[in-house]
Amino acid sequence: MNLRAFLPALSLSLAVFAVEPYQGGDTSGCGKIHPFNGLTHYHTLESLGEERTYSIHLPYNYDAKAQYPLVLGFHGSSSVGLFFEVDTLLSMPAFSADKILLYPDGINGSWAGPSYAVSTIEQDLQWIHDILEHARSEYCIDSARVYATGMSNGGGFLDSLACNATVGGEFAAFAPAAGSYYTEPDEACQPARKPMPILEFHGGSDKSVHYEGGQGEGGIEPSISDWLGLWAKRNECDGDPKQEDSEGGKVHHLTFSCFGDQGEAALQHWKVDDMGHVWPSTELNFSQIAAGEGPTYISASKLAMEFFDRFVRPA
Ligand SMILES: *[C@@H]1O[C@H](CO)[C@@H](O)[C@H](O)[C@H]1NC(C)=O
Ligand SMILES: *[C@@H]1O[C@H](CO)[C@@H](O)[C@H](O)[C@H]1NC(C)=O
Ligand SMILES: CC(=O)N[C@H]1CO[C@H](CO)[C@@H](O)[C@@H]1O
């Protein structure tokens, strides 16, 4: 019996829960106790015959019997997960008290896509598949709430992930910052569903991954507007996004309305005109120091986690 057919008034308030979350994930990691709650822990794991590494941060008060959302954080080039963690502070309870954070390491400091990467897209997608399988067998994970964020080369790799239906399909939403989308436009891009929710951050003054696109360090990059257009099309979003400008016209927030039950504001973009190649943060962080910049108007760590909280992987 369809409850909503009988209770039309109630159906309005139920509208936000219209999506039935995915229940199929492995939960064999539930119940396992770990001696590193609240402390970042470094691990090795074999993938395609190679020993690879990742680090993980469980909440301070991790309850081995409660299913947690899992957020994967992808570092930029010539970097490692531990650095991305320190730069974004995503493991801090202020951002992720109720989430498990996992930081995978690329091979030799980078992710597949650019010409300088030593790994192939297939190899890195398999690595993420293997991490997810392993994580579910060790930690208590809600498979309907698996998300990915990343910076620069790591942000660019999220695009390859979102375009892959099998591995990317395991994620409920993506939030890249300063992403270098070397693999776009991708004629073969086949996302698992519509919408694949995406929140992108980019500096209008990014000198490494230019907002206008063109030649980057590892190949040709699309302009951010073109890239948003590709995802607006894939997610069947309305042509004209809503634009809100703030901070005297220096900060621009675009919101697209897209296809499906979770389509509302499923594609979003923050552009900060005077921001360079950094992880957007209102407090000075490493990537801002490295770029010779100061704090900016928005916190990508906060906005990304809030964005993730709105989406589940549907059944
Ligand atoms: C990765 O870097 C190490 C040390 O710099 C080097 O010996 C190795 O050949 C590199 N691996 C690949 C696949 O390029
Ligand atoms: C996604 O990536 C995996 C790992 O490389 C690959 O086996 C699979 O065929 C890809 N799926 C699609 C739909 O392209
Ligand atoms: C290196 C550095 O200054 N990191 C800072 C990044 O931002 C957070 C939030 O204010 C600081 O706690 C870190 O020390």
Name its key features:
10-stranded mixed beta sheet, Rossmann fold, disordered N terminus, alpha/beta, 23% strand, binds 2-acetamido-2-deoxy-beta-D-glucopyranose, 9 helices, single chain, 315 residues, two-stranded antiparallel ribbon
Descriptive overview:
The protein is an alpha/beta fold. The chain has one domain (39-309): Rossmann fold, CATH 3.40.50. It is built from 9 helices and 12 strands. The chain has helices at residues 3-6, 8-14, 81-88, 93-96, 121-138, 153-162, 224-234, 286-290, 300-308, and strands at 41-47, 50-57, 68-74, 100-104, 141-151, 173-177, 198-203, 214-216, 219-221, 242-246, 251-256, 267-272. Strands 1-2-4-3-5-6-7-12-11-10 form a 10-stranded mixed beta sheet, sandwiched between helices. It is globular, with a radius of gyration of 19 Å. Mean pLDDT is 94; it is low at 1-15. The structure holds 2-acetamido-2-deoxy-beta-D-glucopyranose (3 copies).
